Amino acid sequence: KLHFAEVFQKKGGFDVVMGNPPWEKFKPLDPEFFSNYYEDYRELSKEKQKSKREELLKKPAIQANYAEYLKKYEDEAEVFKKHYKLQGSGDLNLYKLFLERAYQLASGNVTFLIPGQITVDQGGKDLREEFIKQKVLYKIIGLNNQKGIFVNIDNNQKFVILFLTKKQKNKQVGVYGWIPEFDSFKNEKLILVENE
Predict the structure, then answer these.
(1) How far apart are CA 76 and CA 133, in angstroms?
(2) 136-184 pLDDT, tens digit each
(3) Which residues of 133-150 are buried (b: 16+ CB within 10 A; e: fewer)?
(4) Do 143 and 149 touch, CB atoms closer than 8 A?
(5) Which of 2, 47, 84, 134 is the most buried (most CB within 10 A)?
(6) Whose CA is closest to 15, among 106, 126, 81?
């Protein structure tokens, strides 16, 4: 808000915020940490990773660094939880943090490509409830990756393009089902659901 003070003073936020945020959970990852001490750690089987981890943690310097690494994530998670109230329970997920931040910064439209879990998982409940309560949700396009819309991503993965607007209250939400390719929009019917 400091860097774009004029935008917030005149308009209350950005007209449009769009994104495809990172989809990983915000938590410490052993492969990330222990690869610094054993280069091939990531290539080991789970069982061998556990054994190598135990071996490395016998060294006091590595043990101290690991404790510091875990504490860093714990401290940052606490900061996120203070500033982002719609994250629900469980692990923090970066896409939900980015979505909530976009919602905070927007005075107009927010459009995000995010995992389909936002529509059903317990961790996304607070965001969903906020969007429905404030009547800002106006369209969800559900995509599946069966036809490889996204390369190098599992074909069972589901995605949504989520559309929000703060410009008007929406009594209905347009929903497209889990379609396998963008051309399918021509053949799929839009379902209107009451935004209650």
Answers:
(1) 29
(2) 999 998 888 888 778 888 888 889 999 999 999 988 888 887 776 666 6
(3) eebbbbbbbbbbbeeebe
(4) yes
(5) 84
(6) 106
